[in-house]
Amino acid sequence: MSSTLLVGVGRTDITPPIGAWLMGYTPARRAESIGDHLNFTAYAFESDGVRSIVATADVCLMRDPLASEVRQAMAKASGVPFENIILSTTHTHSGPILHDSIGGVTPDPDYMENTLFAGAAKACVDAVATLRPALMGIGEIHSDVGINRRQMLQDGTIILGQDPHGTYDPIMTVVSFREPDGKPIGNIIHYGAHNTGSGKNPEITRDWCGVAIDRLEAESGGITSFFNGCEGDCGPRLANGKTTGNYQLALELGGRAAIDAVNAWRSIKEWRADLPMKVITGTIEMPLKKLPAPETLEKEIEALGDPSQLQGLNLTSYNRLNERLEYIRTTEEIPTTETIQTTAISVGPLAFFPIPFEIFSRITLRIREFSPYPYTLSLSNGNGSLFYFPSMDQLCRGGYEVWLFTSFKIHPFADTAEQYYVDGAVKILRDLNDK
């Protein structure tokens, strides 16, 4: 066994055909053209005989069981253990629908089997096949590509827009790998913001992050991909002052992101080879909210009115409340906690921490502050995607994300969930560092 860091990269095209249903703000939107192609990119790591894979897909999100099924396919094809694989998504709202959506739209089975699963497997096989001794360098830069998107109106209403006073993470990180002789291997761009610049348009696109990917790849010569961070409450800082626009606006912002990514890469001063790769699987125990009495839920359901006249979020609320009522009536012993299993991977001073939520920026900033790793990359929609996870300070403000946090899950997490998650995440990272 060798303690030398080995790195390999594989990438496949997972672009759906024109006419495919797209995942985004509108429930029924077909692709009319291809603005730019979508990819599945996998990075394989090996150190002291242990292998792991960190991968990203240019799609909106993958909920379980889909996320676990794709990871199983990755593990079977590559020989890397399931628990040593992290799978995240870039969260483009202009990629294929991968789960049943509002309006009765369902995933295309041919695309799922022959493009997504096959593409994920091949990318991992190629990544493992190209493992070779590598040096790693890390650069950071302040970037204003993103902005808090929970805009508050005069009356206190929260809408999806741009909030110049809100929290966001301005740090863009570029992780670069090259061979000892200087030959490029690949790059990772990490930043937290929704890829929704073109979220309502008919083009298939990676959105703004695609421009940054292509520019850094051209500059460095290494396969490049994007990993999304705290995008839960952060959107693109579009010129129209909104959180979504059109393909042209996405490309404009992408140019700004490209400049930041290239400058972060150029700022790398140290390249190291003596970097151990470590993997750990841990659990986080999350508190659940005390559920109301059945009579209270019945009144809430009645207040929504005739279900045949409901649509959108009101219809979703009606269905969820009924499911919650049935859950209370049929569950003998209602639990008070829920366990989330998490895989974390580190390479020297760098840690990848997958978060199966659209996580708010304050939470990831806290995790990074208390993490033992100088570079802690939290990955939204990592190894699954449940719903939005707002920070405690935002629960009282309401809004779309808070509604999903409190309403989407049949048995919601307690309002104190953030603190439990931060404590659990930091413990896992410290345990990883101590291995």
* Mean pLDDT across every amino acid position: 95
Report how far apart the termini are. Answer: 18 Å
What level of helicity do the residues show?
25-40%
Question: If you compute it from the alpha carbons, what radius of gyration comes out, rounded to the nearest whole angstrom?
Answer: 21 Å
Individual helix count: 9
Q: Based on helices, strands and strand pairing, what is the structural class?
A: alpha/beta
Strand content: 25-35%
What does this structure look like?
The structure is a single chain. This protein has 435 residues and is α/β, with parallel strands linked by helices. Helix content is 30%, strand content 28%. It is built from 9 helices and 23 strands. The protein has a 5-stranded mixed sheet. The protein has a 4-stranded mixed sheet with strand order 9-13-14-16, covered by helices on one side. The longest helix has 21 residues. The radius of gyration is 21 Å and the shape is globular. It starts with 5 loop residues before the first strand and ends with a helix.
Secondary structure: elements and pairs:
Layout: E1 6-13, E2 22-23, E3 33-34, E4 39-47, E5 50-57, H1 66-78, E6 85-89, E7 95-96, H2 109-129, E8 132-133, E9 135-142, E10 146-148, E11 150-152, E12 158-160, E13 171-178, E14 184-191, E15 203-204, H3 208-220, E16 223-228, E17 234-236, H4 247-266, E18 277-287, H5 294-303, H6 312-330, E19 337-347, E20 350-355, E21 358-359, H7 361-370, E22 375-380, E23 388-389, H8 400-407, H9 417-434
Parallel strand pairs: 3-15, 5-6, 14-16, 20-22, 21-23
Antiparallel strand pairs: 1-4, 1-8, 2-7, 4-5, 9-13, 10-17, 11-12, 13-14, 18-19, 19-20
Helix pairs in contact: 1-2, 3-4, 5-6, 7-9
